[in-house]
Structures are given as structure tokens and as C-alpha cells.
Protein: Branched-chain-amino-acid aminotransferase
Organism: Lentilactobacillus parafarraginis F0439
Amino acid sequence: MAKQDVKDLDWSNLGFTYRDLPYSYNEEFKDGKWQNGGLTTKSTLTFSEAAEELHYGQEVFEGMKAYRRKDGGINLFRPDMNAKRLNNSAERLVMQTYPEDKFVEAVKAVVKANQEFVPPYGSGGSLYIRPFMVGTEPVVGVTASSTYTFHIYATPVGAYIKGLKPMPYVVSEYDRAAHAGTGQAKTAGNYAASLLAGKKAHDAGYAGELYLDPREHKYIDEFSGANFFGIGKDGKFYTPKSESILPSITKKSMLTIAKDLGLDPTETHIDINDLDQFTEAGAMGTAAVVSPVGSLTYKGNKHVFFSETKPGPVTQKLYDTLFGIQEGDVEDKYGWVVPVEL
Ligand SMILES: *Cc1c(COP(=O)(O)O)cnc(C)c1O
């Protein structure tokens, strides 16, 4: 596959697809230690046919973005949290951890090396960054690998869902993660488990699927790649508390933002039969940013939130605040934004 030429990019129509950029980052773990990685122009990886990750799924990943500021600079958003979460995920899958400060430096190096691919301010696009780690040892029996590859690629993306357009979602009959399973780890297997549910949802005309808690199928868990929030009739911000959801950095940030906006945020069990308690609902995550949920269909009954055509005022405000902080237009009171030195 040829490297992407920056001149061939249409910044206003990037979509959410992979493009092969000039630089990636790669580092190997072997003989009990990380082997001094660095930037590489190689965007393919080579493994044994018996590599652990190919058969037993030892893989963890992160999803981050670099945002172009109005002054031409580039921001990362809370990259230290991604570094921590990668290691939490790795521990759940009995993998090596990667030093957190090195992780942040590696991400910065990839962004700097590919800086011309960070979409312009105001285009709605950003540079999506995908750090990941895989177990590479050839194994037949099920054991944790003793060798790993840590790798980062980046690719320019447009808004995951263009504009703040409300989308229809459906409550899935499937689970993406078990109650005491790997739901809190950002790992490939959870996504493999969600593909059929996602295909059925898309085939039926929905933008995506919402999962319920795997134990009782009674409380809202999350979407396949984003956490859920609802704005109650009481004006408060609600988001599910669950052991099988991914601890979203966007969600964590939104709890703080919602508090500052006077929305008295609460993490609690949200009964799927209580949807009429909410005036607005949305999905939140790095890819989704804040996306309004127009409707949710559960057991054949479609529940419409604020509107199927326009975002609710609170959802809009949450989006404007979060994206404003990320792009550097809204004051960063908590030191979340990390500029990349170019
Ligand atoms: C990555 C992810 C999210 C969003 O997490 P952020 O840190 O906000 O990007 C939510 N749910 C799942 C299942 C995820 O994999």
C-alpha cells in the first residue's frame, strides 16, 4: 500500500478510514525488557503464524486524537490517561506494561513527524492516534506471551458523525463483555464480540447498538465504542455505573464539565425501562466526541429523546465545551490539554 500524499487529502471529507502516513512508532519487548524503540517508516508488522495475539487475542489498544488549534499549534488531550489505561488493560490480559512517560513522548513524536497530516482548525477533523500492544511469542498452549510489540500509527479522520446529527440506536440482545470479563479493558476481543450485534443493527437501519448489563440485561451499559449519558427531566447529567463498561476518558472529563455547568452529574444504574426520565441522550468517546442519540429502540419500541433531527441544548453545550477545550478555544482549567512542540 502506498503512503498517503498530503496533497490528495480533502480535509472536509476525510471520513473515518485508514491512511498510511509517513511515520509510525515501534518498540519490541524481549529478553525481559523494552528494546529502545523509535519512529519508523514501516507500517506493516511481521509475526510468527503461531503468534499469541493471532490465536488467543493478547491485544490492547488506545484511541486518541491530536487537534489543530486556531494558532496552528497542535494539542493532545489527557494523553497520560491513555498511557495509564493501556497499562490497566495490559494487566487484565497478563501483558507487559509500557512506561507511561515514554508512551506520551512516543505519541508526541508520531504527531510531530506527521504534523502536516493534522487537519486544519475548523475542518472538524483531527489526527486519530492508535497506540497498541500485541503478544508476539509463538505459542500453541494457552499462556501469556513473553515477547510484545508496542506500536503507534496515526491517520487523519473527519468527525465520526458529521455535525451534531442525532442518530437512531437499538438496544442489542447480545453482550459485548461478560460481567467479570474484559469490559474494562480496551482489547480487540470486546470488539470482535460486538461485530455481529453491530452488523445486525446496521442492517436494520440503526447507527449502532447499545448494550445492557450482561448479568441482568436490565441496566444500560454502553455503546460498542462509546459511553452513554442522559440528561434527566430534573436537568441532571446521568451516566451508567457498571463493571463491564470501558472507563472512558471523555466520560471522566464530562463528569467534571457537567459539574462546572451545574448539571449535578451522577454515575448510577440506569434502568432501560426508565428512558422517559430523560429529555436528551448521547454517546461520548474520543471518536464520537459527544453525539446526540435521536432515538433508542428497545424490544421493538422506539423511544425518541429530544428530537430526531436536531441536538438538544444540553448536548450541544457539552459538545461545544469539550471540543472547545480540545481545540484550545475554551479555557483549560484542569490542565488537560498537552501541546505538541513542533
Ligand atoms: C475507547 C472506548 C470508549 C471511549 O473511551 P474514551 O477514552 O472516551 O475514548 C468507550 N467504550 C469503549 C468500549 C471503548 O473501547
